[in-house]
Amino acid sequence: MAAAASSTDRPGALEITRKLAEICGRPFARFAGPADEVAGRTARWVAVPGGPHAAAEVLRLAAAHDLTVVPRGAGTKIDWGAAPAQVDIMLDTGRLAGVWHEPQGSSVAEIGAGTPLRAVQATLERTGRRLPVDAPSPGATLGGVLAADEAGPLRHRHGSPCAQLVGVRYLDADGELVSVGLPGTAQFGQAAPSARRGGSPAADPGGGAAPGGASAVLGGAEVPGLDVARLLCGSQGGLGVLVSATMRVQAVPAGRVWVSRPVWTPLEVHDLVRAVLAARLDPAAVELDLPVPVSLPRRRIPASHPSVAGRPDHPAVTGRPPRPAAAGSLVVLLEGGPADVAERADRLTALLGLEAVVNHAAPEWWGRYPFAPGDTALRIEVPINDLHAAVYALRDAAGTPVPVRGSAGIGAVHAALPGSLPPERVASILAAVRGVLLARQGRCVVVSAPAPVRRAVDLWGELPTLPRLRNAKAHLDPHHRLAPGRLPGGL
Q1: DSSP string computed for 246-259
Q2: What does the pLDDT look like over 348-402, one tens digit per residue?
């Protein structure tokens, strides 16, 4: 940090500060402080532009002085991924906020990148609508969610936030405001960089849930430039600075219930998930929580006890040995009309057995990560038929049960390793798990980690789309001014 601080004393530093203040306003441009860092890399300046044109001026200033720029929203995921090689200007998007409704009855809305997701949902809810996005990071902005392509339980039915993207306005590395999206929409009239510069790169940034397979077709019609727009998802600000996004919105469902069932082993989870999906119950989410089990003493309960009476499945009645304390829960969210939800819930409880319970509120862990600050956080993506193999492989490699939570219905979960593990131990666990996943077309990514682990391990593992990503970076940010080093391969 001392080196970063001293860099502000170099000749010209005060001049940069003065120019940033002219662009953003004096209260919104300053030298960076100790908290202004990206994955441990401290910035030199912080600029908070008041609108798209001011943000463009910041980028033009950076280009003129060969300075790097890293966007920041609420900072909830600022320590995810690799540390950038250098952070000269941290461009805070907090003033690029707002929710602009489309014409009455429209199924889309344009939202400023710096708008907190909670504020988006509260605004839309007043008109009976919602954004089908439930990213777990508290206080996250829409821009931050898209930059990481961060998805919550609703991804089971609606896909990642990138799948809800209809159009964007973003700034390229030269400070040019680019708009792409729905044809005929006024705010999306400009051509995408691919149209101007000859060629349309297709890359998987690898920072979030991979958008590489996203289609640029809406309603059977090709949407010019939308493939480039979707490259911004998961790119951690390394391909462009998001100004606003036009997203699909939908009516708030009238009925919602969570049907939960205790689970004991990953193999049991595998069988239950297959049964739920085969039943065609149209779940909105199928979530798994496998915390580290805690062994507690259990007293013997006689068959005559009131708590046991009427429960033919209880060990005191069946005579079979008791099952171990439940290691976790499988919870299915059903949404829709109240009568329809009730009917599907009845079918689901019959499928899951006597231990299934219907609740009208989500469990406490719903939509939360299993890791805490300081942990090594992993994301595992694997075909659902192999999810149990991935969890077993992680347990075997770690030598102990590891907390796992996420969307079992699509094979995308997160896991937590203690932050106290030495880097070489984390590296060996990753190698073992990735070896198992490689044959199953899965992957294991380090989402965040303590600095020594981040520096010592391969965060992404094998990434077949790296050549396409390299092409995209060269196409959109040829001088590597935007978050250099944040993307895989040091891009």
Answers
A1: EEE-EEPPSEEEEE
A2: 999 999 999 999 999 999 999 999 999 999 999 999 999 999 999 999 999 999 9
Q: What does residue 413 show for φ and ψ, rounded to 5 degrees?
A: -135, 165
| Strand, helix or coil for residue 1 | coil
Q: Which residue has the tokens 């896909």?
A: 159
Q: Is the pLDDT of residue 85 over 80?
A: yes
d(CA 76, CA 105): 33
Question: Is the Cα torsion angle 268, 270, 276, 279 positive or negative in sign?
Answer: negative
| Backbone torsions φ then ψ of 242, nearest 5 degrees | -70, 130
In order of 7, 232, 366, the CA distances from 143 in angstroms are: 29, 10, 23
Element housing 19 (H / E):
helix 13-24
The token duo for 484 is 């250099």
* Helical ranges in 139-215 per DSSP H: 142-148, 155-158, 193-197
* Residue 177: Cβ within 10 Å count: 16
Give the tens place of pLDDT for each residue, 407-426: 999 999 999 999 999 999 99
**What are the residues facing 443 on neighbouring strands?**
381
First-last CA distance in the chain: 23
Angle at the Cα of 456 (from 374 to 3), degrees rounded to 5?
75
Rounded to whole angstroms, how far apart are CA atoms 14 and 8?
Answer: 7
Q: pTM to 2 decimals?
A: 0.83
| Dist. CA 101–CA 96, nearest whole Å | 16
**At 180, phi and psi to the nearest 5?**
-140, 150
The DSSP 8-state label assigned to residue 129 in this structure reads E
Contact 245, 96 (CB under 8 A): no
User: Residue 187: helix, strand or coil by DSSP?
Assistant: helix
Share of the chain above pLDDT 70, in %: 80
Distance of alpha carbon 480 from its chain centroid, rounded? 24
